[in-house]
Write a structure and sequence with these properties.
kinase activity, 2 domains, 24% helix, 8 helices, alpha+beta, single chain, Elongation Factor Tu (Ef-tu), domain 3, membrane, nine-stranded antiparallel β-sheet
Length: 374
C-alpha cells in the first residue's frame, strides 16, 4: 500500500458515519493494511466499542490505535461538537511496529512484553495517547521516551467531556498507550507553536509548587505587568485566554518553550499561579496567543516539512493540535487543517484536538504537531 486509505464523516448515528468512512476508502478486499488510526468525537464516546468492532470486521485490520477528542480532524476538515469519525489504514511490515497497552504506574509490564522488541528492532518512533487525568502523565511520557533512547514520541492527551477512552488494539483507559515503530519506518515530524513571546527570558527566584512568588528577584506580578504592556496591566481581567506563561527548554537550539495556563493572579501579594510545578532557578517568559502569529508559525513549519519531502507525497499523516487552537484560534472554517492542505497538498490525514500535546519527551500546550509517513 503506497498511499494509506482514509475517510472522515459526521452523522447522527455512528453507523452512518462509519459507513461513509468505508465508502471513501473504496474497495478493501485486496487491501493488505495492518494498522488503523481511529479518532471519534466525544459525542460518540459511548459507541467507541461498537465502532472499533465494526471497523475490525469490515476491514480485517488487526491492529488499531486512537482516542477520543472534543474535536477531531482529517484533510481540510475539522469536526467540533458533532458526532464524527476519522479513520486511516496503513501498511507496514509486521516486524516494524508494535502496539502497547496502557502504562499506568511503572514499566514492569511494558518491559516484560515490549522492551526486547524495542531493543531488537531499534524502536525509533512512537505515536502515543494519554489520559489527562493521570497525575503522573508527564513523567510517563518522559520515561517512555527515555526507553526509546534516541527515539521520538508524538501524540496527545484525550480531550473529552466524559469517557477518556484510548484504543490500543482494544479499548483501554488511563495512563499511556500507543504504537512503536522500528527504524525501518521512515517519518518526519515537526511542531508549531501557537503563542508569541512578549518579553525577555526571566528567571524564577522564589516559588512554591505552582506558585511563582518572585521573578528576577522582583515580585512576579510586577515583571508580568511590564511584559504584557500598560493596557493589559491596567485590566488584568483581559489576560485570560490571551496571555500564557511559557517555560523555555534549556539547551534547545530552536528556542523551544512549553506554554502553560495562567490559573491565578494574586494582586495583593503580587504572585502568579500556573498549571505546572516550578522551581527557583527555572527560566520563564510570557507569551500572547495570536491568530496571525500562530498561522505564520504553522506555515513556516509546513514549509520545512515540504522541503524535507523533496517533491514526494507522504503516504499518510497524523496531526495533533491543542483544543485552544482549531476553531478557537483560527476560526470555524477548518482553517488550521486547510492550511496543511494548501502547503502540502492532498494526502491521507487524521488526528484530533488534544488536552495537551506530546512531542519528544514533553507535554506541550497550544501547539500543532504534524507527522508524515514517508
Amino acid at each position: 500500500m503506497e498511499t494509506f486509505k482514509f475517510g472522515h464523516a459526521q452523522a447522527t448515528k455512528w453507523e452512518d458515519a462509519a459507513q461513509a468512512c468505508l465508502n471513501q476508502m473504496g474497495d478493501l478486499t485486496s487491501s493488505s493494511a495492518n494498522i488503523g488510526f481511529l479518532y471519534t468525537t466525544d459525542l460518540l464516546a459511548d459507541d467507541v466499542p461498537d465502532i472499533l468492532d465494526y471497523f475490525k470486521q469490515q476491514t480485517n485490520v488487526p491492529h488499531w490505535v486512537g482516542t477520543v477528542g472534543i474535536s477531531i480532524c482529517s484533510l481540510a476538515k475539522e469536526y467540533f461538537n458533532v458526532p464524527a469519525i476519522a479513520v486511516m489504514l496503513g501498511e507496514f511490515s509486521e516486524e516494524s511496529f508494535s502496539v502497547f497497552s496502557t502504562i499506568n504506574k511503572n514499566f514492569e509490564e511494558f518491559s516484560r512484553t515490549h522492551q526486547s522488541w524495542c531493543d531488537n528492532k531499534q524502536a525509533m518512533f512512537g505515536i502515543v495517547h494519554g489520559d489527562p487525568r493521570h497525575q503522573q502523565i508527564a513523567k510517563l511520557v518522559y520515561q517512555m521516551s527515555e526507553r526509546l533512547g534516541d527515539g521520538f514520541l508524538v501524540g496527545g492527551l484525550t480531550s473529552s467531556r466524559h469517557q477518556h477512552l484510548q484504543i490500543a488494539d482494544t479499548l483501554v483507559e488511563g495512563g499511556l498507550s500507543g504504537v512503536l515503530f522500528s527504524s525501518a519506518v521512515a517519518v518526519t515530524t515537526r511542531l508549531s507553536q501557537g503563542c508569541l513571546p512578549l518579553g525577555p527570558r526571566h528567571q524564577i527566584t522564589e516559588s512554591s509548587k505552582n506558585i511563582i512568588v518572585r521573578i528576577d528577584e522582583r515580585p512576579a506580578l510586577d515583571v508580568f505587568k511590564e511584559d504584557i504592556g500598560t493596557e493589559l496591566a491596567n485590566d488584568l481581567d483581559q489576560v485570560a485566554g490571551l496571555i500564557f506563561p511559557a517555560l523555555p527548554i534549556i539547551g534547545s537550539d530552536t528556542g523551544d518553550y512549553l506554554v502553560r495556563n495562567l490559573i491565578g493572579i494574586d494582586p495583593k501579594h503580587k504572585m502568579l499561579a500556573i498549571s505546572d510545578v516550578v522551581n527557583s532557578g527555572m527560566p520563564i517568559m510570557f507569551t500572547r496567543r495570536e491568530k496571525e502569529t500562530a498561522h505564520q508559525d504553522l506555515v513556516k513549519m509546513l514549509n520545512i516539512l515540504k522541503k524535507r519531502l523533496k517533491g514526494k507525497q507522504p503516504k499518510g499523516g497524523v496531526y495533533y493540535s491543542c483544543m485552544g487552537r482549531g476553531q478557537n484560534l483560527f476560526g470555524k472554517n477548518s482553517e488550521e487543517v486547510k492550511t496543511i492542505q494548501q502547503v502540502l497538498g492532498d494526502f491521507p490525514l487524521v488526528g484530533f484536538f488534544a488536552n495537551g500535546e506530546i512531542y519528544y519527551q514533553r507535554l506541550y500546550g497550544l501547539t500543532g504537531i504534524l507527522t508524515l509517513f514517508l
